[in-house]
Design brief:
Strand order of the largest sheet: 1-2
Oligomer: single chain
CATH architecture: Orthogonal Bundle
Largest sheet: 2 strands, antiparallel
Structural class: mainly alpha
């Protein structure tokens, strides 16, 4: 079970995280325009910077220093992630983001889309500055994969998929950006380290935990309300063959059954265990321990 808070887990890279906040602000301020101030505020609102923490933990675990190139990579990843959030809020017609008015609620959809595109351009600038063709290829592939995940979700709303399809969607919507962050950090560290399986499993586990919380830690499920059927609904549909035709509240009541919660927990634990197993080759260090704690942090 959880023994440490997130802040305690990443304490070993606290100076790196502090330096990153300054680096990100400078990256956004570099070209001032009418949106610069609001974008800077948006980027500083309540984010745990998990992808960034993973970049620095990877770098340190591989006995490499966090230098300017790692900061450029981190800038690119965080800008790319936040660009996707600005776009997501338009797609979902969301009015709140991180407990504050969303960008599209403050302005409108047009400015939110343009703001997201602008952050993507800044992300590209950081990736290009690394002069690493392989990282640029990963960035472009990730962007395409994220879009594919959103396209698939849009056209499969109110439709029950298989668990295999759900895992693939979780990879495309979430795990792929974690994968790019960690694999790029490993590449910059000039190591032949292979963290691909670890970060893929971790990223999928992260999405399963998020979906679990949306149903079992909430009085209502925004996923079910929006016709997004995740693991608990998929498991329930094995017993209720026409489940997707039920009213939202009825589906929510059905999936609250312990049977489907436990099966979702088992699925989550499978990917957590796989991720932990993938770390076995890393030498012992406080950074490896932080990786382990981050995996444990996802347990329920």
């Amino acid at each position: 079970m959880i023994t440490k808070s997130y802040a305690e887990i990443i304490e070993c890279i606290k100076p790196d995280m502090k330096n990153f906040d300054r680096s990100l602000r400078e990256s956004v301020k570099k070209y001032g325009n009418e949106l610069t101030g609001d974008l800077e505020s948006f980027l500083s609102q309540g984010s745990k910077r998990l992808r960034i923490a993973l970049i620095f933990l990877t770098t340190r675990a591989l006995d490499y220093e966090v230098c300017e190139r790692q900061m450029m990579l981190a800038n690119g990843i965080e800008l790319m992630h936040n660009a996707s959030l600005l776009h997501d809020d338009v797609v979902d017609n969301a009015k709140v983001r991180r407990k504050k008015k969303s960008f599209n609620a403050v302005y409108d959809n047009t400015i939110s889309i343009i703001g997201g595109d602008y952050l993507l351009s800044l992300a590209m600038e950081n990736f290009m500055g690394l002069n690493e063709p392989e990282i640029l290829k990963m960035f472009l592939k990730t962007l395409k994969t994220l879009c594919e995940g959103e396209i698939h979700q849009y056209f499969h709303k109110n439709s029950v998929s298989t668990i295999e399809e759900y895992i693939e969607k979780s990879y495309k919507k979430t795990a792929v950006l974690y994968e790019t962050a960690v694999n790029s950090a490993a590449l910059l560290a000039d190591k032949n380290a292979d963290l691909k399986e670890f970060i893929r499993n971790y990223g999928i586990a992260f999405q399963i935990k998020d979906d679990y919380n949306n149903i079992y830690k909430s009085e209502t499920s925004t996923d079910i309300e929006e016709g997004i059927f995740t693991a608990p609904v998929i498991y329930a549909a094995e017993d209720y063959k026409d489940l997707e035709t039920y009213e939202t509240q009825k589906i929510f009541e059905i999936v609250k059954n312990n049977k489907y919660e436990n099966k979702t927990k088992e699925l989550l634990q499978k990917y957590i265990s796989n991720a932990l197993g993938n770390l076995s080759y890393l030498k012992e260090s406080k950074y490896k321990n932080a990786f382990i704690e981050l995996c444990r942090f996802l347990e329920v």
